[in-house]
Design brief:
Layout: E1 11-14, E2 42-46, E3 49-50, H1 51-62, E4 66-69, H2 70-73, E5 77-78, E6 81-85, H3 87-94, E7 100-106, E8 109-114, E9 149-150, E10 158-159, E11 167-171, H4 172-178, H5 183-187, E12 193-195, E13 206-208, E14 211-213, E15 217-218, E16 221-222, E17 239-246, H6 250-253, E18 260-266, E19 274-282, E20 286-298, E21 303-314, E22 324-338, E23 341-355, E24 362-363, E25 366-367, E26 381-396, E27 401-424, E28 430-457, E29 460-488, E30 502-523, E31 528-546, E32 552-557, E33 560-573, E34 576-587, E35 602-616, E36 620-638, E37 641-665, E38 668-683, E39 699-708, E40 717-726, E41 729-730, E42 738-739, E43 742-752, E44 757-764, E45 772-774, E46 781-782, E47 787-795
Parallel strand pairs: 15-18
Antiparallel strand pairs: 1-4, 2-6, 3-5, 7-8, 9-10, 11-17, 12-13, 13-14, 15-16, 17-18, 19-20, 19-47, 20-21, 21-22, 22-23, 23-26, 24-25, 26-27, 27-28, 28-29, 29-30, 30-31, 31-32, 31-33, 33-34, 34-35, 35-36, 36-37, 37-38, 38-39, 39-40, 40-43, 41-42, 43-44, 44-47, 45-46
Helix pairs in contact: 1-3
């Protein structure tokens, strides 16, 4: 059996609550669902297979929680279950001959244990030749590199093979094996994603399928829609997986870019005590400590909790660079007051201190190759904080209707004193500079109310989702600016101080948006599945810009739009899904025309076809997709007055992607991807049509694999590595400069001293290649030279 890497215990909670055809909903906020109708008989169709997987599927259908000791189920299989059974009868049938029994523990939980000798007729157990496969969930614990279920594409517990859109998932074990500590590290395992604007190295944003994403979701809820970039660097200590929904997602999430959506799924409290402590140290004074603990607080009252904490500090290979610091804490509670009701609440706090780095200069159409040169000042810095809290409630009104509500509050601040390099003088070496004192505050309150209905009409099985969303957001930006002495590009000397600060900008943004959406997942028969959805959004936004004298001007924006979505899946065999889909997006704009009217929202539409195939059944899965995305109504400069805009811009991306993840054999895991993108500017009033889109290579991809010895004296020793590559990228829409392609090679070696302790050593960029990792008009950044990180992890 392949061991879960960094699993703190052989015990884990099989937290399953299938939405499709069950009385329980395990959508974006579900957790360990208690048994809802324990004594009622119900029809089941559970296929034969490894015992742990079969028990997990049955528990999902019964709506119960089943802690599993993998030492008990290893090497055992079950013949499955057909027909109508009660929960107790179902467990009895599935466990016949295994020497095990399931005992009701109360509060919707059953416990798996060995049968007392002579308590029942024992049949010979059946050994399996394949690998032990853990059930993959849409939320909660995941095992290995392969994930087969997700909620990001439908807001319901749905198998990925049943969704007519490309969805890629980076599970916890990949993050552990790569010792990833940033969102950028996580999504580097997904096709068609490149790093974008970092706002001086203080945040992470990404180009997805050629288009920049300005925000992301946490457990299915978007963060502040008014932001022009994510609010803060994301810490991964409390992240169970990172999901990427490719293409437009407005039908479920409202406003957004057409390239796709990143969804961060947090770790959930469990009713089995578990925890992990990890310490790391590495190159450039890198130090990190993190801890995560979870367990029952009161089983009698159905209360469980978890706590995640992390502290990180790091220097840099850049000269005159300040150390960066990050602190993060996130407590979460889960409460099941009744068998039909589930409540989850949590708090998250993150703060960072870092230098503000504008990146590398562009000179004569080339990015400065002197990657260690830092043209800012040592006092240039940025401090950010973010607080978030959320509250989720799910209630099973009956066996066909589940109601749920989620409210999320986000607040963030950013204070910066930074340097901007302005222009290169005629002598070719003197750069003028400016200092900026920047203050930004952001706030958002999001509420979603949803009903999930399961019913049949004319022999068709439906899972219908109806939802209403209300979002209120605010953002304020103030800037003071001062002159700063120029610097010699080739012989930089730091130590300059800014002159007197004066007014730069004072802006206020307020937005209220409302959305109503409807989705229906229809099983036409065993082979054909249909997905239909539509959403209507209304946005009311006011942008107020103050002048130095205190006067102000307002721009009022009140667009509304309808976003449809449709897709079909055909499954000729159990291991193959063929799909085709159409999806749309919209994003409000605040640019004005010469007559003072606000431009219509940007819109996007995608046509996608593809297939999802189990290269090795239940072990290794691949997704091959081909798509075309068109982004319309882009603002371009008015040719008669460049202070205004016209709405004629259009961009288009055509591409082919291949993503593969899972295990090839026992102990051998792999995740990889490759993408070919034709990303072009189709229409513009001043730029050359046919120019390539910013930051998007024609070819990009990655391949990462690990292998751990399963037998012998060296059992527990593992090693692995990967290559991450991207082709030539242009830094702006004018294609005025570019960066050449690169290939970065990483390696890892690790050893499990026992089931609870692991030692690991990870090396990044082992060939010490010089390369540009981020190419964007807002800043170009070099990849880190060769570095190593040593880690020790202990759990229970």
């Amino acid at each position: 059996m392949t061991r879960r890497l960094f699993s703190p215990s052989p015990l884990h909670v099989v937290r399953l609550a299938r939405a499709l055809g069950t009385p329980m909903l395990a959508g974006a906020g579900a957790l360990c669902a208690p048994e809802t109708f324990a004594e009622q008989s119900k029809r089941y169709s559970v296929a034969a297979g490894p015992l742990a997987e079969v028990l997990g599927e049955f528990a999902a259908g019964a709506g119960v929680t089943l802690p599993v000791d993998t030492a008990l189920t290893e090497g055992l299989s079950s013949p499955g279950l057909e027909g109508e059974w009660s929960t107790a009868q179902g467990f009895e049938q599935l466990l016949r001959g295994s020497g095990l029994e399931a005992v009701r523990h109360g509060n919707g939980t059953w416990i798996l244990k060995r049968r007392p000798t002579g308590s029942a007729l024992q049949l010979d157990s059946v050994q399996i030749n394949g690998l032990h496969q853990e059930q993959s969930l849409a939320v909660g614990l995941t095992e290995g590199y392969r994930v087969s279920r997700s909620a990001v594409g439908t807001k319901t517990e749905t198998a990925l093979r049943d969704i007519p859109q490309s969805i890629q998932v980076v599970p916890r074990q990949v993050l552990e094996d790569q010792q990833a500590t940033s969102l950028a590290d996580a999504v580097s395992n997904v096709s068609s994603i490149q790093r974008g604007n970092t706002h001086g190295g203080t945040v992470e944003s990404f180009f997805i399928r050629g288009f920049q994403a300005t925000t992301y979701a946490v457990d299915g809820v978007l963060t502040n829609s008014l932001v022009v970039r994510p609010e803060i660097l994301t810490d991964l200590v409390n992240v169970e997986r990172v999901e990427v929904l490719k293409g437009p997602a407005s039908v479920l999430y409202g406003r957004g870019n057409p390239g796709g959506l990143i969804n961060v799924v947090t770790r959930r409290p469990s009713f089995v005590p578990e925890g992990q402590v990890k310490l790391q140290a590495g190159s450039y004074d890198y130090q990190r400590g993190q801890a995560w603990v979870s367990g029952p607080l009161s089983e009698d009252f159905g209360l469980a909790g978890s706590l995640a904490m992390a502290y990180q500090t790091k220097g840099s290979f850049r000269e005159h660079y300040r150390d960066t610091h990050r602190r993060h804490v996130a407590p979460t509670l889960f409460w099941a007051p009744t068998d039909a009701t589930r409540v989850e609440m949590g708090i998250e706090y993150t703060e960072t201190d870092s230098p503000y780095d504008r990146g590398l200069q562009v000179v004569d159409g080339r990015i400065d190759s002197r990657h260690r040169v830092f043209l800012d000042e040592p006092w240039s810095h940025a401090s950010s904080t973010k607080e978030a809290t959320w509250f989720k409630v799910e209630h099973d009104a009956n066996d066909w209707l589940t109601l749920r509500q989620v409210t999320r509050w986000d607040h963030s601040t950013k204070d910066m004193l930074n340097v901007s390099q302005r222009t290169l003088q005629a002598d070719g070496r003197t750069i003028t500079r400016r200092a900026t004192d920047f203050d930004e505050k952001q706030y958002s309150l999001s509420s979603q109310y949803e009903a999930l209905m399961r019913f049949s009409t004319g022999g068709l099985q439906h899972q219908a989702l109806v939802g209403v969303e209300a979002v209120n957001g605010k953002r304020s930006v103030t800037m003071l600016r001062a002159n700063l002495a120029p610097i010699d590009y080739y012989r930089p000397v730091t130590g300059a101080q800014p002159g007197p600060f004066g007014f730069g900008e004072d802006s206020r943004f307020e937005q209220s948006s409302y959305g109503v959406y409807l989705q229906d997942q229809i099983d036409l028969n065993e082979q054909w599945k249909l997905l239909l959805g539509v959403r209507w959004d209304k946005v009311d936004q006011r942008n107020r810009n103050y002048t130095a004298t205190g006067s102000y001007s307002d721009i009022d924006i009140d667009p509304s739009d309808t976003s449809p979505r449709a897709g079909v899946v055909y499954q000729p065999t159990p291991n193959l899904s063929l799909y085709a889909s159409y999806s749309t997006s919209f994003s409000p704009q605040n640019k004005l025309t010469r007559d003072g009217t606000v431009l219509d929202p940007e819109t996007g539409e995608q046509y996608e076809i593809g297939m999802k195939y189990d290269l090795i059944p239940d072990q290794l899965t691949g997704t091959l997709s081909a798509f075309e995305i068109t982004r319309d109504n882009l603002a371009t400069s008015d040719p008669f007055d460049t202070s205004y805009s016209i709405q004629t811009g259009q961009q288009r991306v055509r591409g082919v992607e291949l993503d593969v993840s899972g295990n090839i054999r026992e102990g051998w895991n792999v995740i990889g991807n490759i993408a070919l993108l034709d990303a072009k500017l189709v229409k513009d009033s001043r730029l050359e049509e046919g120019a390539r889109l910013e930051g998007v290579p024609i070819v990009s991809g990655s391949l990462w694999s690990t292998y751990q010895l399963q037998e012998g004296d060296l059992r527990g020793l593992g090693f692995g590595g990967g290559v991450f590559f991207a082709g030539k990228r242009y830094g702006d829409l004018a294609n005025s400069y570019s960066a050449s392609g690169y290939a970065r090679t990483d390696l890892t070696v690790f050893y499990d001293l026992n089931k609870n302790v692991r030692l690991s050593l990870n090396a990044r960029n082992i060939f010490d290649r010089d390369y540009i990792e981020t190419v964007a008009s807002a800043g170009n950044y070099a990849g880190e030279p060769a570095s190593v990180v040593a880690s020790v992890s202990a759990g229970f």
